[in-house]
Amino acid sequence: MSNVWTLAKRELNAYFASPIAYIVMAMFALIFGYFFYAATASFMSQSLRAAMSQGGAPPMNLNDYIIRPLLGNASVIILFLMPMITMRLFAEEKRSGTIELLLTSPVTDLEIILGKWLATLLLYAGLLAVSLLNIANLFLYGKPDWRALAVGYLGLILMGGAFLSLGTFLSSTTKNQIIAAVLTFGAFLMLWVMEWITFFSFGPVAQALAYLSITSHFESFSKGVIELKDVVYYCSFIFLGLFLTSRSMESLRWRS
Amino acid sequence: MIQVEGLTKRYGRATAVDHISFEVKKGDIVGFLGPNGAGKTTTMRMLTCFLPPSEGKATVDGFDVLENPMEVKRRIGYLPETPPLYPEMEVREYVEFTGRIKGISSADVGKRTAEVIERCSLGDVRNKLIAKLSKGYRQRVGLAQALIHNPPLLILDEPTAGLDPKQIIETRKLIRSLAGEHTIILSTHILPEVSSTCESIIIINNGKLEAIDTPENLTARLQGHETVFVDVEGPAEQIAGKLAKLAGVGRVEQREGARSGRAIFEVEAAKDQYVRSEIATAVVQSGWKLHELRPLGLSLEDIFLKLTTHDQAVETPAAASSEPVAESPTGGAQ
Ligand SMILES: Nc1ncnc2c1ncn2[C@@H]1O[C@H](COP(=O)(O)OP(=O)(O)O)[C@@H](O)[C@H]1O
Ligand SMILES: [Mg+2]
Fold first, then answer.
1. Which site in A3, B69, B128, B174 is 20 to 30 Å from B216, CA atoms measured?
2. Which residues pair with A224 in a beta bridge?
3. Half-sphere exposure of A201 (CA within 13 A, CB side)
4. Which CATH number is B120's domain given?
5. Same domain, B201 and B239
6. A154 to chain B, closest Cα gap in Å
C-alpha cells in the first residue's frame, strides 16, 4: 500500500507543477465566493426585514438559509470543474508513454488506480477546504449547527469521490485528454439532470432514473441527515467506477 | 535467464511476432536486430509483461510472464523506445520515484538514487527539470530508471536511437560497462550498434526469427569464401587471365572505377582457401605493379541484407552507413 501513496504523491506533484491545480482552485474559490456573498447578503437583508416587522418572527436559521443552498451550489460547481481534474489521469500517461513504466514496474493495477484516485480526492479536499474558509466566517457572526455542516461535507466528499472514480474510468478509455474531459463532463451532466425527470413524470422508470442520479443522493446530506441508502449508493458508485477502470486497464493490455 | 518458446503476438489479424524461440544465458549481451516494424518492441513488451503473448511461452529467471508477472517485473529493468519520463519532475526526484515503485525500501532509496545518478553521469543535472533536458540526458535518465533496482536483466529498446554521434558513443560505453553485472538485451535497427556491443545477435524480420549467432559466426557462416580486392597497374585482360589460373581462386571480376593504366578486381577464393600471398607473388613476378591488396570481409550490413533480402529492408543500410562510428571488431578487420 505504500505504493499507493508514492503514486498519489507523484500525481499531486504533477497537478501542482502544471497550472491545472491553481486554475481549478481559483475558479472554485471565485465562484463559491460569489455564491457565498450572495447567500449571506440576501440572508442579512431578509433577517433585517424580519426583525423590523412586528417582533413575532422566529430567528432565521443559518444552516437552512445559507449552508444548505451553498452546499447545493458547491455540488454543481464541482460537477463542472471535476472533468478538468480527472481528464489527464490515464490519458496523459498513455500519450506520453509513461504508462509503460507503471505497467512494467512491480505494482498492481489496483495500486495504480487507487493512487490516482486518491490524488484527485486530495486535490478535491483542497477545494472543499477553500469553501470551508468562507463558511468559517459564519461562526464569527452566528451559531450554525456544526454537526449538520460536517454531514454536508461528508456528503460532498462521497459525491466527489463518486464523480472522480467515474472520471478516472473515462480517462482510462482514451489517450486524448480533451475526449476524456468531454466524455466525463457529458456523463456528469446526465447523472445530474436525470433527477429532473421527476418534475414531470412519476412512473417507476422516472423513480429509477431519479434514484440513479448522483446529485439526488446529496439532498439529505445537505440537510444534515446521513441516510444509509445514500451512503451505499455513493460507495457502490465509487467501487463501480474503480472496477471499470481496472477492466479498462486490462483490456488496454489485451487489445493494444 | 530468458527462455522464449513459440512466442507470438497478433494485433487483430496482423501477426507482429510469429513463433519466436530463443534463449538468453545469464551474463549475455544480446542484440536484437531487425528493420523497423520487425517486431522487436513487441517482443520486448511481452518479456516485460506490458503485453500478454497471444501464444507461446516466455520465462524470465524461471518465472512465466503470464503466471508470475510480479516476479518477472522485479527482475527486469526496462528502457522503452521512448523513455517514460515525467517532464514536470526533477531528475533526482524522478529516479527516486521509480526506485520506490520498483520496490526499494525508503531507507535505501536515497542512497541507491545517488549511486545510479553517479553511474549514469547525471550529477550536473540532478536538480533540473526533465522537461529542460537534452535528448542525450533524457536517454540516460531513462537508463537510470531501468538500473535503479539493480535488476539482473536489462531490456533496452533502441537505446541510442535519435542521439548524436557523441551521445551514441557515451551511451554504448555506459551499456558496455554494465555488461558484467547484468544480462542485457538491446534492440536496434542499426548494425554497428550490435556488432560493437553484443556477444550474440538475434535477427528478426517480419516477426520471424531469421538467425541467432555471434557476430563472428554470422560473418563466417555467410561468408565461406574470402573475397580479395586487388588494384594492379598493368594490362587488365592479361591480369585477369593470370589471376583466374591461380590455384584456389574461384572467380575473378573486374570492377569499375580504376585509375588510368590500372585495373581493379574482386577475386573470390574457393572455400577455405587462402589466396592473398599467391596473388601478390603472381602479380609481382609478372612485372606489374601492385597498388593494393586487401580482403573484403562480409560486413554485418551484407549479412543483414542477405538474411532479409526477401523484403523491403530499404532504409536500414542507409541508416547504418550514415552512422559515423568506426568501431567494428568483426567487419573487415583481419
Ligand atoms: N498497438 C499496435 N496495434 C497494432 N499493430 C501494432 C501495434 N504495435 C505494433 N504494431 C505492429 O506490429 C509490428 C511490429 O511492430 P514493433 O514491434 O513496434 O516493431 P519494431 O520495434 O521492430 O520496429 C508492426 O507491423 C507494427 O505496425
Ligand atoms: Mg521498436
1. B174
2. none
3. 12
4. 3.40.50.300
5. no
6. 32
Per-residue model confidence as pLDDT tens digits over A143-202: 778 888 899 999 999 999 999 999 999 999 998 999 999 999 999 998 888 878 777 777
Residue B159 contacts residue B171 (beta carbons within 8 Å): yes
Q: For residue B27, what are the domain limits?
A: 2-207
Q: Are B288 and B239 in contact (CB under 8 A)?
A: yes
End residue of a domain, out of B173, B207, B241: B207
Domain count, chain A: 1
One domain for residues B269 and B188: no
What is the residue with the minimal CA distance to atom 25 of ligand 1?
A: B37
User: Model pTM?
Assistant: 0.81
Whose CA is closest to B159, among B80, B51, B75, B43?
B80
The whole-angstrom separation of Cα A180 and Cα A86 is 8
B236 and B97 in a common domain: no
Pair B54, B134 in one domain: yes
B110 touches A: beta carbon within 8 Å: no
How much is the ipTM here?
0.89
Residue B302 lies in a domain: no
- Asked whether residue B146 falls in the same domain as residue B57, the answer is yes
Alpha-carbon A203 to chain mean position: 29
Q: What is the pLDDT of residues B67-116, one digit of tens each?
A: 999 999 999 999 999 999 999 999 999 999 999 999 999 999 999 999 99
- Whether A256 lines ligand 1, by a CB cut-off of 6 Å, is yes
Q: Residue B77: which residues within 8 A CB-CB, separation 6 or more?
A: B145, B146, B147, B148, B149, B151, B153, B154, B155, B182
3 state DSSP class of A67: helix
pLDDT tens column, A9-63 = 999 999 999 898 999 999 999 999 998 888 888 887 887 777 777 665 566 677 7
DSSP B203-239: EEETTEEEEEE-HHHHHHHHH-S-EEEEEEES-HHHH
